[in-house]
Design brief:
By secondary structure, this protein is of the alpha+beta class. It is built from three helices and two strands, in the order ββααα. The protein has a two-stranded antiparallel sheet with strand order 1-2.
Length: 116
């Protein structure tokens, strides 16, 4: 994705000297509205599962509510394993065993490598 550089409009006096410069804003009203809407949408999601909090915290959807209208259950075909997350966890466990002081402060990175 390529970015863009805002342009600047310069005003000159009769002698050609710059008397004012007006930079173009980096965000227009539409872009700002989209970002605000995204922020509001994400604020309404559970940070762990990503479901809509208004729906997922409704007592009507409590597994233990016999009068509820529905409940959350594991999706068919799950769980599945993310192999990248498994590699991260292996790395975290290895390092935690050898450096137990602050293992949560270490950043791990994994990459897909070809076999061979």
């Amino acid at each position: 994705m390529e970015g863009w550089e805002p342009s600047t409009v310069y005003e000159h006096d009769a002698d050609g000297r710059v008397i004012r410069s007006t930079p173009e804003p980096e965000w227009n009203d539409h872009q700002l509205a989209l970002m605000v809407a995204l922020e509001e949408y994400e604020a309404g999601l559970c940070r762990r599962c990503g479901h809509d909090l208004q729906e997922s915290t409704d007592p009507k959807h409590d597994f233990n509510n016999p009068l509820g209208t529905g409940y959350y259950a594991p999706a068919e075909g799950t769980p599945i394993q993310c192999h990248a997350c498994a590699a991260l966890e292996r790395s975290e466990q290895q390092v935690a065993a050898s450096n137990p002081q602050h293992p949560g402060a270490l950043m791990h990175h994994v990459e897909l490598r070809p076999r061979g």
